[in-house]
Design brief:
The protein is α/β, with parallel strands linked by helices. It has 3 domains: 2-36 and 89-150 and 233-294, FAD/NAD(P)-binding domain, CATH 3.50.50.60; 43-88 and 153-227, D-Amino Acid Oxidase, Chain A, domain 2 (2-Layer Sandwich); 300-350, no CATH class. 30% of the residues lie in helices and 30% in strands. It is built from 9 helices and 17 strands. The protein has helices at residues 9-20, 89-103, 141-145, 201-211, 258-270, 275-297, 302-312, 315-323, 333-339; strands at 2-5, 25-29, 43-44, 59-69, 75-87, 106-109, 113-115, 119-122, 125-128, 131-134, 154-164, 170-175, 180-187, 190-197, 216-227, 236-237, 240-242. It has an 8-stranded mixed beta sheet. Strand 13 and strand 14 (190-197) form a beta hairpin. It is globular and about 60 Å long. Bound molecules: flavin-adenine dinucleotide (FAD). The site of flavin-adenine dinucleotide has 38 residues, from helix 1, strand 2, strand 3, strand 11 and strand 15. Flavin-adenine dinucleotide is lined by residues 5-11, 28-31, 39-44, 112-113, 135-137, 141, 157, 159, 194, 222-224, 226, 244-245, 250, 255-258, 261.
Length: 352
């Protein structure tokens, strides 16, 4: 039996793919309901469709434009050649669980993994397993229990759903508020507004809400930890595998974890034996590049952001941003540097 801990999107997708390979799969989820509580903004590039089928009713909106602000409210408008999708995370997680069940995977809900690898403790019960997959999120108990936690670091994501005014097909990004802030249109009149920050996320969120300069009414609040990618982490050891947030597979620029996590689930199901090597080959390079960019941006001050937004405003630079998905910076970073060599000046922040 393969035990998967965590019925998030990544664990559910791995369960479906492994069950389709006639493996005996059982998913343990500590919550009683899949998909809740929601801790996500649900904005993804269309790249996700190359990995997994998304049911129509999971997509609640599509955005065709992005407005990027510097902390001093300079802004540029970017057309998204391929519109980004805004998804309902609870429905998405549940639809993946349904597909996994259809493929033959079993689910045990309200079942918390407490430790072990070949003999695992779930609640008060013990199970003998052949392989153990940790898909249990950023603070992974599977990683902790199997000495695979490493020295991982986190940012905190904090968001509200609020009634306010905005353009229905435009996402707003605010650089330099925390790590960055966003307003993502969910439906007519309701937006997801949030920040990611190393410290004081609620302070940064209040600043963002003030900067938006509009009236708003908060409907609910969500938040959670987001891991920084750790390229040195051991993610496969003696029949134990980590995927998704539990393996820190998150883009450190945008803190999006859905696309890389789902890609990791597929890589695991394709070949469990060579998972770590294959996944590093497939997504490791881009995750490392994202981390490098984050390390540079961590040293930005408000003037740097103003300057960056100024450079992005140039037509030839903007075109590169408009025509490439942000999932794979390795495909456009060099082009960007060739179009705007002044971007190199930010590279020195890696050293000093
Ligand atoms: C505020 C916020 C906004 C975000 N916005 C975006 C976005 O717009 N786009 C994007 O791509 N990414 C976004 N992310 C990141 C994204 O949510 C994660 O990368 C994604 O959820 C990872 O999926 P996962 O299945 O690996 O882990 P999770 O979704 O964290 O699922 C882990 C599951 O494991 C369960 N679990 C944990 N411990 C145990 C245990 N001991 N026993 C049993 N079950 C357990 C949990 O209950 C949970 O169901 C955001 C994150 C935050 C915090």
């Amino acid at each position: 039996m393969i035990a998967i801990v965590g019925a998030g999107p990544v664990g559910n997708f791995a369960a479906e793919l492994l069950a389709k390979k006639n493996k005996d799969v059982i998913v343990f989820e500590e919550h009683k309901k899949v998909g809740e509580p929601i801790q996500c903004t649900g904005i993804v590039t269309q790249e996700i469709k190359n990995i997994v089928k998304i049911k129509k009713d999971v997509i609640v909106n599509k955005v065709k434009k992005a407005k990027i602000f510097s902390p001093n409210k300079k802004s540029i408008d970017v057309k998204l050649t391929k519109p980004n999708l805004i998804i309902d995370r609870a429905k998405f997680d549940r639809s993946l669980a349904e597909r996994a069940k259809k493929a033959g995977a079993k689910f045990v809900l309200g079942a918390r993994y407490r430790g072990g690898n070949k003999k695992i403790s779930i609640g008060n019960k013990k199970y003998n397993v052949k392989a153990l997959v940790g898909a249990d999120g950023p603070a992974s108990s599977v990683a902790k229990s199997n000495d695979m936690y490493g020295n991982r670091k986190f940012v905190v994501g904090s968001q509200v759903r609020a009634k306010t005014k905005f353009e229905h097909d435009q996402v707003e990004f605010w650089l330099g508020i925390g790590e960055f802030g966003w307003l993502v249109p969910e439906s007519k009149g309701v937006a997801r507004i949030g920040v990611v920050a190393y410290r004081n996320p609620s302070g940064h969120l209040n600043r963002l809400l003030k900067n938006l300069g509009r009236k708003y009414k908060i409907i609910d609040r969500q938040g959670g930890l987001i891991p920084l990618y750790d390229p040195k982490l051991t993610i496969q050891k003696k029949g134990v595998y980590l995927i998704g947030d539990s393996a820190t597979q998150v883009k450190a620029t945008t803190f999006g974890g859905l696309v890389p996590g789902l890609m990791a689930a597929k890589t695991l199901a394709d070949d469990m034996q060579h998972y770590e090597k294959n996944v590093k080959k497939k997504i490791g390079r881009d995750l490392r590049l994202n981390l490098l960019i984050r390390n540079v941006m961590d040293k930005f001050d408000e003037k740097d952001y103003d300057e960056l937004v100024g450079m992005f405003a140039k037509d030839h630079v903007r075109k590169v941003i408009e025509t490439h998905d942000r999932d794979f910076p390795s495909k456009f970073m060099l082009k960007l540097l060739l179009k705007e060599p002044r971007l190199m000046k930010f590279g020195k922040k890696l050293v000093f």
